[in-house]
Amino acid sequence: xxxxxxxxxxxxxxxxxxxxxxxxxxxxxxxxxxxxxxxxxxxxxxxxxxxxxxxxxxxxxxxxxxxxxxxxxxxxxxxxxxxxxxxxxxxxxxxxxxxxxxxxxxxxxxxxxxxxxxxxxxxxxxxxxxxxxxxxxxxxxxxxxxxxxxxxxxxxxxxxxxxxxxxxxxxxxxxxxxxxxxxxxxxxxxxxxxxxxxxxxxxxxxxxxxxxxxxxxxxxxxxxxxxxxxxxxxxxxxxxxxxxxxxxxxxxxxxxxxxxxxxxxxxxxxxxxxxxxxxxxxxxxxxxxxxxxxxxxxxxxxxxxxxxxxxxxxxxxxxxxxxxxxxxxxxxxxxxxxxxxxxxxxxxxxxxxxxxxxxx
Length: 360
Description:
By secondary structure, the protein is of the alpha/beta class.
């Protein structure tokens, strides 16, 4: 009997080819688009490369027809609101910079979709991520880098559980983007040349502060810009307008540029520094999800990524009694930002990852 797999289809080329590859491999494939948009008026305005809006449904439906597979739209609006939007707003209000795509992967695209898929009798879910799932010699599952560094998406998947990995397929991880587009052209799906989505889907205009204000019904209170010694440099518009490393939009005149170094919610202060003040070698990482190992009890070497676009840098992980990790990098890193993920690799697979809590 064929194994059943539910493919999360965003209407893009990657998930479309993932569905094709799995069907070619002999799986019983069903396509599903996750309905997560909260305000249809906003999502009707999305760009054509949006991954989660109304146009994605039409694109995914046409691809499913081309591949001759069943296709459904499933409603996950409540899950998305709770696990992604509310989390996003709450983190910004705490002076942190969240990564909503990581939360969406963990709690919506996997936890919610996997549960729904299992209820329908599926054996697996699948996505179009550029990553690979491996089972290591110790029996644990981990995420392995894709064959193409240019599109590698492993960083955003560090938070998946062992059970989720055991029931997930990622066929696209064995290909590079050009190969995926060529396959899409070969099978004749209309999204072969569709551009990749780059934006946070629920803030299509990039104005995070305005979005948070609309969600909460409250304006962010102005406060003081201060330097590292506490001297007042000027007034800020409200902390939700700023993130660590930011230079533009500060409105502070100086011979050498200022950058945001720290956000202090308790005093409503935004700390500014010169460029060199952004660098540090140590950060504290909490909410750690162990992947390749169940835990670590002594210091280990790894390569750490502190943001999606970070190339990765050698570091030593020091486990702490409270369950956090202290990541000590060999060389100083720029703008280690509370709320962002720090993901640690050994060889080409994920050892563990967590949320940056602050500099050490």
